[in-house]
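Slides due. Your pick:
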Amino acid sequence: MATSELDRDQVIGLDEPETSGEEEEEGATMTLVEHLEELRRRIIICAVAIVVGSIIGFIFREPILNFLLLPLPPDAVAIHVPGKDLRVTVIGVGEGFTVFLKLSVAVGICLAAPVILYELWAFVAPGLTRRERRWAGPFVLIGVLLFFAGMALGFLTLRFPVGWLINFGQNDFLELVTADNYLTFIAFFMLAFGIVFELPLVLTFLAQLGMLSSRTLRQKRAVALVILWILSTFLTPGSDPYTPVILGSAMTVLYELSIILIRVTGK
């Protein structure tokens, strides 16, 4: 009798296994069309934010350009115009407008970065587990702060390689610093610093995958720091002694920060 009642309970579903709390935290299932529609909507929001930021950047284009010209040494001006402080040149019809347009778009992307990251987070969050959502938010915030901190340090360091490169051939060449060339140079330079500052997140992600641990980083500290300091001499243009030292010191601090982050996330 007891056996038949047990069989009947299994048939009508009273003895179904309980779902774990983590499985209940999984995001709701969406069809492919719904996913694409959601992605399209969030891309449009990001595009609008970039356009608005670009308009703001174009309105304040001259103050922004003057700020970015601060690392350029005063003696870099090859052609002096009476009554005007012109430090860079343009070549060709419309290049001045093109340069300001590129600068405005770059400023727009920077201003829209919080919106872009929020939309990216909102798109992937429903598909994450409770543990992943707990760490994703702080990781994104730390990543943004580290990236902008790297770009800020790169901007402060710019005057050393720019001054060395300009003064290197000043006695042999009439060097005309074009606006497009100069802004492209500082953009890649600052971007390199911003990417390097993501080192703690990369190492922490590898630790989450089980590929390394904080103990491994402590044991291999001497070898890793030697490699990082060697890389600092290749990642920076020019031969000035200051930029590699600044970048090497920053990577040393970031390496130690990685050990701390791995220990914290491991707990």
